[in-house]
Specification:
Elements: H1 3-29, E1 62-64, E2 69-80, E3 84-88, E4 98-103, E5 106-109, E6 111-116, E7 119-123, E8 145-150, E9 157-169, E10 179-189, E11 204-206, E12 212-220, E13 225-228, H2 231-241, H3 259-268, E14 272-278
Antiparallel strand pairs: 1-5, 2-3, 2-14, 3-7, 4-5, 4-14, 6-7, 8-9, 9-10, 10-13, 11-12, 12-13
Length: 280
């Protein structure tokens, strides 16, 4: 090969590498990111009052949770204003007395009504406005955007995710069948929230109509993945609890621009609440 031919090939190679680098840079620059503003600070005196002025929980049913909490377990959400909640089962492992936090430092005792896979159904005396369940096959599909309000790291926060597909995950314990979960790519979270999403387990996965399509169960931080239950497992858990019909009416429309505000509203109304374990 003549020298000028070698140099010509080298130049073409450098041009090709440069084009690839430019394309990659543009792709990373345009990568979807939909962060939400940080939640507002608590109102003065909020540690003395229920989060919602219209809370149906009687003060006589409340217990102090600040000093007696063993572990800040995760997130729960209401599916009946009569006091029925869903959360992730693993957040309650080894817990003798779970409680739903209804005010700063105050909570109401909850009872485990049923367990289905990694979904637990809790009941309390008194309830909160219920979230509606999406119809089977609704809210999932190519590019579907969903929102997860809850208590990551034990503090109010939320995440946004986009549908990836169905994934089989190896279950814990010998002889357990693989668990079928929905996989989502995290595309946004509360502004300033870094690190783990621990505490978001049990949160509702809401579609754009404000309906629940799954329960948040796990995450893979290095891959930016969030995993949730399937709609079928969600409904099976409700059926196993025998709690009667669950609402399906759409909630407030949720978008990338307002999901932080909607999450704040759901937490304020106790439709989404923190679930903790009280010391015996």
């Amino acid at each position: 090969m003549r020298p000028h031919t070698r140099f010509q090939g080298l130049a073409h190679g450098l041009v090709y590498v440069g084009l690839v680098a430019a394309i990659l840079a543009v792709a990373l620059w345009r990568r979807e990111r939909t962060d939400a503003p940080a939640p507002p600070p608590p109102l003065p005196g909020a540690d003395k009052l229920p989060i919602s002025p219209s809370s149906p929980f009687s003060p006589t049913r409340m217990s102090a949770v600040t000093a007696n909490v063993e572990t800040a377990s995760g997130t729960a959400f209401s599916i009946s204003d009569a006091g029925v909640w869903l959360t992730a089962r693993h957040t309650l492992e080894g817990c003798r007395q779970p409680a739903i936090v209804v005010a700063e430092g105050r909570g109401v005792a909850a009872r485990v009504r049923a367990v289905r896979g990694d979904i637990a159904v809790l009941t309390t005396q008194g309830g909160a406005p219920a979230l509606g369940l999406a119809r089977l096959g609704q809210g999932t599909g190519d590019g579907q955007l969903t929102f997860l309000p809850g208590f990551p790291q034990g503090r109010p926060g939320e995440a946004a995710s986009r549908w990836l597909g169905v994934q089989s995950v190896r279950a814990r314990g010998r002889g357990q069948r693989p668990q079928v979960l929905l996989a989502w790519a995290e595309v946004g979270r509360t502004d300033g929230l870094t690190g783990t999403l621990a505490g978001l387990s049990g949160a509702p996965v809401l579609d754009g109509a404000g309906q629940v399509v799954g329960v948040a169960l796990a995450w893979a931080p290095r891959r930016g993945r969030i995993f949730s239950s399937t709609p079928e497992d969600l409904r099976a858990a409700v059926a196993a609890a025998g709690v009667g019909p669950v609402p399906t009416a759409p909630g407030e429309t949720i978008t990338p621009d307002n999901y932080g505000r909607v999450a704040d509203s759901l937490r304020r109304d106790l439709s989404v609440a923190q679930v903790v374990c009280l010391a015996a």
